Amino acid sequence: xxxxLSADHPxxxxxxxxxxxxxxxxxxxxxxxxxxxxxxxxxQELRFEQLLRVCGLQTPFSxxxxxxxxxxxxxxxxxxxxxxxxxxxxxxxxxxxxxxQARLLWHQRPLTEFLAANTSPRxxxxxxxxxxxxxxxDQPRALWESFIARTLADxxxxxxxxxxxxxxxxxxxxxxxxxxxxxxxxQHWQRHCEHALGARVEVLQGYGLPDEYTVIARPPR
Length: 221
Ligand SMILES: C[S@@+](CC[C@H](N)C(=O)[O-])C[C@H]1O[C@@H](n2cnc3c(N)ncnc32)[C@H](O)[C@@H]1O
Hints:
The chain has helices at residues 12-29, 41-51, 72-80, 96-106, 141-157, 186-195; strands at 62-66, 88-93, 112-116, 124-129, 159-168, 200-204, 212-218.
């Protein structure tokens, strides 16, 4: 399977933990926002709206959706964008249970495929990833950050025209909140994308989710 790590790889246990966590969610709640650990559809869609700002939606394009869950982004695209049917979509998720739900829902949709993996096997025009960095479970912060750096490098390599991801911001009151959540100031990964990946970066904030933000990274001009 694409992107599968050998059992002794430093990130193998981390991926297995993510897989267990989200497979359990979707097995309990089915293909619903709760099944991908989101509180509700309106905020799930608000995140998609921000992430899709990386794409020019007027012309057809190819899109990798990393951590696609049950493919909720497709429902949003079909509802909101007249050119949606012409988007060549690949959804990738670590959780085979999630991918099984996505295939059940979307098997009749043209130009649409799903893959159980931790990275995309193809280069697309754009990539997006919603919510994949938020729940670090009991992983040490440094290991979680090496997972994020690896995922950002994959997104960069596999996106011709840009990619977009979202993060949880530090809490306004200065508290740390539940230890299983990963919170980080926007400058951290903004600088990483600029310096390590050579990307032009835009950070979107203030779109109605006060402790979240979206990072859009585009290739240099
Ligand atoms: C919070 S859910 C969001 C699902 C979907 N993006 C949405 O917003 O409806 C995160 C999903 O990302 C998957 N995931 C996390 N890290 C991943 C990775 N590196 N590669 C593929 N899938 C990943 C999880 O299995 C889970 O299904």
